[in-house]
Amino acid sequence: MNHNTKYSRIAFPQDLEQHIVRRIHNAERTAARRHFFGLGAVALASLTSLVPITSYLSQALTKSGAYEYISLILSDGTTLVTYWRELSISIAESLPVFGFAVLLGVTALFLWSLGKTVRDARGAFMTTQTI
Amino acid sequence: MDTRTDIELITEYLAGNSRAFDTIVLRHTRSIFAFVYRLSSGHADTADIVQDTFVKAWKHAKRFKVSETSNDRAFQTWLFAIARNTTIDWFRKKKATPFSAIDEWSDTHAENGDERGITDTIADTEPLAHELFEKEENVQIIEKALETLSLHERSIILLHNYEELTFEDVAEILDIPMNTVKSKYRRALEKLKQIIERMHQNRP
User: CA-to-CA distance for A72 and A48, rounded, in angstroms?
Assistant: First the structure.
């Protein structure tokens, strides 16, 4: 079937393509805005929660005695060379692992949500372009 | 004129170039419009259905599996399947169905078993299709006669004869076995032939 026959007797609405593209752009913008505000809130919440987590970790490090081990290492290099294995185990045992895990997790969440928010910012506030 | 293939465009779109989808819209709007227009017997809502079709395609673009073997045919098949389903959904929602057999879907699966054997012995449909579609005088009559066909038959004729898709592609769009497509196609052609003959006889 040739092209003329294929589309014969069909009146195409004017600017239909433009309407479709505009509708898709609007939907893209709405989705980007939703992501922007949702992930922006996550970024803000994770950034805010970094303050108490850091404070908790600092207190836990003080209580654990890890600072003493570190100052011993820094003050006497020969002790480190001789007893490096024992010192390593002692430091590892005294470190507040839970606090570090939470800090790392929240930092990762913050960086991820910040990256996504920045990426969506352009789409969320762009103006509709005509094609 | 954009020389990128549909697969290249959809790949670019999925990689973050949102403008690539605009080109897909520009490229396929006319054929999708013509398909929906004929499928719905020229319904006034055709433009809205076409808009919905592309919005759905945009929303579900990630579901289109792009692989090394993907080609533009596969993309077109996917797009026509969305167009067809959107058309059916639209009229179901509006409860103003222009289709004589919109719910024949389930019946088809029941009859598939019988038709598999029958279609192997069906004669080649090409001479009949050629006879019907190549005569310029038949064009208008066929457009009118299409409205008397069932949804399945109409879809098959539109996709195979107007959009020039293979039976394999049509089967994928309709989600039915290829043999069923072939037998329905044969039946639809016979119906069209009878209608056209009747119309010619009734001419003064």
Answer: 34
When pLDDT is cut at 50, 70 and 90, the band that residue B97 belongs to is: low
Classify residue B159 as exposed, middle or buried by CB count within 10 Å of its CB (0-12, 13-18, 19+).
buried
Tokens standing for residue B154: 């109409």
Q: Which amino acid is at A22?
A: R
Q: DSSP for B25-75?
A: HHHHHHHHHHHHHHHTTS-TTHHHHHHHHHHHHHHTGGGS---TT--HHHH
* Identity of residue B172: E
Q: Chain B partners of A118 at a C-beta cutoff of 8 Å?
A: none
Q: What is the pTM of this model?
A: 0.71
**Rounded Cα gap, residues A70 and A63, in angstroms:** 14
Kindly provide the residue ranges of all beta strands, DSSP E only, lying in chain A, ordered along the sequence: none
ipTM for the whole predicted complex goes beyond 0.90: no
DSSP assignments along B109-136, one per residue: HHHHHHHHHHHTTPPPSHHHHHHHHS-T
Residue keyed to tokens 């809205």:
B48
Nearest to B183 by CA among B105, B117, B109: B117
Task: Confirm or reject contact between B2 and chain A (CB < 8 A).
Answer: no
> Mind telling me how many Å the CA of B155 is from chain A's nearest CA?
15
The CA-atom distances, in angstroms, between B24 and each of B9, B55, B59, B160, B198 are 7, 12, 14, 21, 42
